[in-house]
Each structure stands twice: as C-alpha cells, then as structure tokens.
Amino acid sequence: MKSKVRYTIIIPVYNEEDVIRETYRRLTLVMQSLCEPYELLFVNDGSEDRTAEIIEVLAETDDSVRLLNFSRNFGHQIAITAGMDYARGDAIVIIDADLQDPPELIPRMIEKWQEGYEVVYARRVQRKGETLFKKWTASLFYRTLRMMTEVDIPLDTGDFRLIDRKVCDVMHGIREKSRFIRGLISWIGFRQAAIEYIREERFAGKTKYPLKKMLRLAIDGITSFSHKPLKLATYLGLALSLPSFAYLVFSLGLKIFTAGTISGGRWLITLLLLLNGVNFILLGILGEYIGRIYDETKDRPLYILRNKQEAENLLVRRG
C-alpha cells in the first residue's frame, strides 16, 4: 500500500461477525472504483465474537485493511474517536458496519468534498425495516436535541459523514470524555453540506443502539452543548411559586371575608410530593453535569489499545 492515503474509511465494529465480510466487500468495491489510495480502518470495540479474527484474516490479504483493537468495550463514540486519531487520509468517512448506511453513497460525499465542503453529512429521509416506536423515538430524539442544544445539529443525521483532514485534526485536540461526535463536528463549524438518502434495513445481527443507549446518547448530546437543563430550576420555581402564592392569597381572603375554610391537609401532601419530585429531578440534572466534571478531572485516556505497537504502525506519516 502506498504511504500517502487519500481516503480513510473508519468503521467502528462491535460483535459484527455476521456482516463484516459483506461490509468489507461493498466498501472495497466502492473505494477501488475511485482509483485512489485508501485505507479501511476497522476499530474493534471489544467484540466478544469473531469480528476481530475475521478482520485480521482480511488484513493478511489486503494491505488497505487496518485494525485497531480495544482492550474492552469503550463505546461507539470512543471507537469513532480512535479511528480519527489514527486516520491518515486527506478525507475521512465514518460509517457503521451494519450496512444500514450504504457505502455506495461515499462517492457522492467525495464529490461534495471536492467542491470545497469540509463536512458532508448524510440525512435520512426514510428508515426501512424499523418499528413505528423506533422511528418515533428517533424523531423525538433529534428534535428534542435540536430544541435543547445551543449548536445547530442537523435533524435526522447520524455519524455517517465525510470530514476533511483539517476537521479531523481539530477533533484530535478535543478530548472531552462524554463525547457526542456529530455535535462536536457541528460545533467546530467549517463549510458543511447534506446528502439525502434512504436508510436500509440492518444486513444482519442486532442493533447496537437500543432505547437505553439512545437515551444515554441524548443526555450526552444535551449536556455537552446546552445549559438549558440547569435553567429548569428557575422555570419550575416560578411555575410552582406563582400558583402557590395565588392559592395563599385566596385562602387568606376566604378566611378573612367569609366563614368558609379550605381543608389544607390533602393540598399540603400533594404539594409536598410535587416539590420533592421536582427536587429529585433537579438533583439528577445537577448530578449529570457534576458527573461529567468529575470524569474530566480524572483525565483518564479515552480508550486503551490491546496492542500498542501495532497501533503505532498505523501512524506512519502521510507522504
């Protein structure tokens, strides 16, 4: 393989033995059609199946295949980060291994990049093979994220995108622990363009983003780019104090000017339960932000590679 790499394709993988050969085949067909040097950089995020073994076999017969092996599962966003750390291309494409995002879209991304755009992201206009609940929660996720964050994160986009070398270099300097890659790339700026596509069904295997992980990703995205959740205390305080004050005035007026009284026992219990619930919600929000501060102060590495020497060999400078 030539030392100068034009394109790097980052493929984070976790337990993808059923699909990895087909992913390699389709990516290879697409990249060979471009007739320029490229590398397929697989990042094995602590797979427990034969994923890493299969990629190692592919690497023995194809010099364009590279593999980074994590010592354990560090998560999808960290795997993408590692890929960007070791990418050597002038243009870097991030794509998942499940083939829901079609590799055949990469040439269109490259065309946009050659027009001068430094970030080209893929926007989903249709999602095949997913339940109504999955589609609804995904739509809610993106729109809540857009409403809550202070960065213009495009709707209905995932991590499938192309970034220029200069964007990748900037990302290399951002080492925060709770990472939301698509938000960070939007925050960086540069010239960005969208390409629309239809997302296919998963080729094989199971989704690596169930509802629990989607919620975790949403929390990471919101807390990384917005202080709005912290302002909920002010809004909830006003929302509760104004009706309470009005009720107090009404109760005093009823007591002073009429013979009637209002039983306060039930109202008091309800109000106390409501206030305690609000307090716990606010404590949870504060805990999320404090937890992130705690993670940053520990300054642990984002990931650990199983074989450091092999990884260093991937850092051969571009010619």
TrEMBL record:
Annotated membrane topology: Multi-pass membrane protein
Sample GO molecular function, one term: glycosyltransferase activity
Keywords associated with the record: Cell membrane, Glycosyltransferase, Membrane, Transferase, Transmembrane, Transmembrane helix
Example of a GO cellular component annotation carried by this entry: plasma membrane
Subcellular location: Cell membrane
Transmembrane segments annotated in the record for this chain: 232-254, 266-290
Glycosyltransferase 2-like domain: residues covered: 8-168
EC identifiers of the protein: 2.4.-.-
Keyword Transmembrane helix carried by entry: yes
Nucleotide-binding in keyword set: no
Sequence similarity: Belongs to the glycosyltransferase 2 family. GtrB subfamily.
Protein name: Glycosyltransferase
Provenance organism: Neomoorella thermoacetica (Clostridium thermoaceticum)
